[in-house]
Amino acid sequence: MTLSNYLSVFGNRRVAIVLLLGFASGLPLALTAASLQAWLTVSGVDITTIGWFTLVGLPYTFKFLWSPLLDRFEPTWLGRRRGWLVLTQLALAVAIFAMSLLDPVASAGWLAVFGVIVAFLSASQDVVFDAYRTELLQEDERGAGAAVTTLGYRLAMLTSGALALIIAEKFLGWNNTYKLMAALMGGMALVTLFGPRLALPEGPRSPAGQELKGFLAMLAGALLGYWLASRGLALLGVPTDSKGWALFYLVAEVTAGGVLALWLARQMGFPALLGPLDEFISRKGAWAILALIIFYKLGDAFAGSLTTAFLLRGMGFSQTAVGEVNKVFGLLATLVGAVLGGLWMVKLGLWRALMLFGALQAVSNLMYWWLSISGQHPYVFQIMVAAVGVENLCGGMGTAAFVALLMTLCNARYTATQFALLSALAAFGRVYVGPASGVLVDQLGWSTFFVYTVVAALPGLLLLWWLRPRIDALHSPSNQSPQALD
Length: 486
Hints:
Domain Major facilitator superfamily (MFS) profile: 14-472
Subcellular location: Membrane
Structural class: mainly alpha
Protein name: MFS transporter
CATH architecture of the largest domain: Up-down Bundle
Distance between the termini: 23 Å
Oligomer: single chain
Order of helices and strands: HHHHHHHHHHHHHHHHHHHHH
Shape: globular
Number of helices: 21
Number of strands: 0
Keywords: Membrane, Transmembrane, Transmembrane helix, Transport
Membrane topology: Multi-pass membrane protein
Number of domains: 3
Radius of gyration: 22 Å
CATH superfamily of the largest domain: MFS general substrate transporter like domains
């Protein structure tokens, strides 16, 4: 491909709208994660409660459950995919605005509720955007589409992360900053209207009544399993007045709910979910692969779960300093790491890249340990810059290899649902380690905590070592995605 052809690919309408929708996809994430954590921290909320607030991201780990419905049912008034995109973006604007009306101390419960709603809507937008991008881009545009998606997503995280920190401290305060983000999110719905329209699918589809019946059965099973686990543990005398036992309750309730939900979905029939799920599970070593997806970035997730709180409260840096270094410089380091990782993978191959980058992202957590013991060191700011740079650089390299693994694992016939499933599992560590991180920091202190994050990375690396023959044998599916129409 000549340079002019390459530039024309990046400059066409389809790739341009993918860039803007990548921004829309990334904007809500920090508002329920790092920025929310900063808001809670400067408002005086205790560290254990802040750790529990990381659970507002739970919908990201379960988005595969309702992704089949988003695929099966379409608001046809805007064409395929665009109707759901507009609806989720407008709903996100309303929910973010609702968060802006609350006080983190006086209304922590309601703030958590609307945080969960934002995460649910954001996860739903991600599912639809992934499908829209796949069907919209032509074969020679997919590389450019992947690049601009990452660019848009990271710019959005910079906007709702670092920029929000600076605006909140210097100009508007957190409540008005969230109002500004809500307005920006609402504007993305207008951007979506300029996206190319996709033709609605032709041919027979699974019966709508069957899909709804299966979904409702799955939902009923989730609620029933959650309730049975809660009641069973209470009858067994398991205490509920401890933060540690509360985490045990949560894991047991979610596990029971998930198992019963899938069992009832299978009994009643939910083909839009069960088809992609059964295809993946039928593969040799599927369960070990799923475990690898959960554990590979677990140590990285532990270290990153309370980084903002550590820099603000543990080390006493200002919001502006944290925004400039942890968000802006950290973002640039992540992008550089992702590019370096992608280039290096060509020579290393998938398994060796996963192993090397996984080891680097684990060891790089010790940079935060070094920062935590620096105290009143005259160069403590420079140490923070080094810690943020090295950790994000290595984390970006690990992410590049990890995303390549997820893409390789998807069957082209079920890309949307299987990618939603795998990416949801990948978010498992980022969401669930928050409460444990808060408890560990409270009990052990920051320096010991960061040593534990390195230990937490070891199971994923050992599992990767054991799975080398299967990773080496993976091949990208040869099937082509459905052709997109303007």
